[in-house]
Automatic annotation (TrEMBL):
EC code(s) of this entry: 2.3.1.225
Organism of derivation: Solea senegalensis (Senegalese sole)
Domain Palmitoyltransferase DHHC: 140-265
Record lineage: Eukaryota, Metazoa, Chordata, Craniata, Vertebrata
Protein name: Palmitoyltransferase
Membrane association type: Multi-pass membrane protein
Length: 327
């Protein structure tokens, strides 16, 4: 899920060909130089990640409150007063399982480093450690003073460059990038499923209550029951449409190997795209299995004891486009 590749372009961008003269050969345009993964991994990759953005925190809290409201109406208005024990157990188990997975996916999407590039690594010492070839250039982000990897974009909310950034979502209070896109996809999928499930139960509940006495359909008064069900129906319909569209958009982005911000900026065709199924395996962490649907896959309480490469310290280079000196 991590791209161990930095953006390195040939200064002779318009030539992209190999010369046969005595002057040697030119490097091909868009040539990529592999960099060790530990070098470009964020220093916070093994720590808790949380964005201190007031709007995002409020939106995340609202998301949880809406799910809890749906939980309250489904359990106390529709299932517990139901005459059929089997109906209550089956639907209660299904709804609670989906709601739990939705909230777990939301937490993982919110608290997972989306692929942040280390701040302040645009130093002469760091660039020299990359061992790039003469005639190439690297690009510095002027906002966070980091060497921008290929397909990275700066997020003004996270205040970091994010690898394969799709967009910043206030509902999960985080960017959607190469490390947490799976959890965002699962979050939208499970929210869409519980919305569809709750709408189905509301329809059946209304039909049963119309045929029976309203006072026996719920422990609440008939007016309160109707209001609670109408609010749940409105919430379910709204979020079913919204999350279904987001789910489809994210799957399309994965399959086309093109993020939303890349499509918006017209940055297509600047990298070698991988096939759809291979891109899905990369995004979801391996070959197809039940772990694709689990927000807990890859979660470990053990600390990563792997030795990380230390980024050489030094003064930040002022230039945004840094040319590697020619021999």
């Amino acid at each position: 899920m991590k791209s161990p590749v930095h953006r390195c372009r040939d200064v002779e961008h318009g030539r992209g060909q190999t010369g046969n003269g005595a002057g040697g050969s030119f490097l091909q345009a868009e040539q990529r130089i592999p960099i060790p993964k530990d070098v470009i991994t964020s220093s916070s990759a093994s720590a808790m990640w949380f964005i201190r953005d007031a709007c995002g925190i409020v939106c995340a809290i609202i998301t949880w409150l809406l799910v809890l409201y749906a939980e309250f109406v489904v359990l106390f208005v529709m299932l517990l007063p139901s005459k059929s024990l089997t109906y209550s157990i089956v639907n209660g188990t299904l709804f609670n399982t989906l709601a739990f997975l939705a909230l777990a996916s939301h937490l993982r999407a919110m608290c997972t480093d989306p692929g942040a590039v280390p701040k302040g690594n645009a130093t002469k010492e760091y660039i020299e450690s990359l061992q790039l070839k003469p005639g190439q250039v690297v690009y510095k982000c002027p906002k966070c003073c980091s060497i921008k990897p290929d397909r990275a974009h700066h997020c003004s909310v996270c205040k970091r460059c994010i690898r394969k950034m799709d967009h910043h979502c206030p509902w999960v209070n985080n960017c959607v990038g190469e490390n947490n896109q799976k959890y965002f996809v699962l979050f939208t999928m499970y929210i869409a499923l519980i919305s569809l499930h709750s709408l189905t139960m509301v329809v059946f509940h209304f039909l049963n209550c119309f045929e029976d006495d309203w006072t026996k359909c719920s422990t609440f008064s008939p007016p309160a029951t109707v209001i609670l069900l109408i609010l749940l129906c409105f919430e379910g319909l709204l979020f079913l449409i919204f999350t279904s569209v987001m789910f489809g958009t994210q799957v399309h982005s994965i399959c086309t190997d093109e993020t939303g911000i890349e499509r918006l900026k017209g940055e297509t065709g600047k990298w070698v795209k991988v096939p759809c199924w291979e891109a899905m395996q990369v995004a979801f962490g391996g070959p197809f299995s039940l772990s694709w649907c689990s927000p807990f896959a890859g979660l470990s309480c053990k600390k990563n004891t792997a030795e990380h490469v230390t980024v050489p310290q030094g003064e930040i280079i002022e230039e945004d486009v840094i040319e590697i000196p020619l021999n």
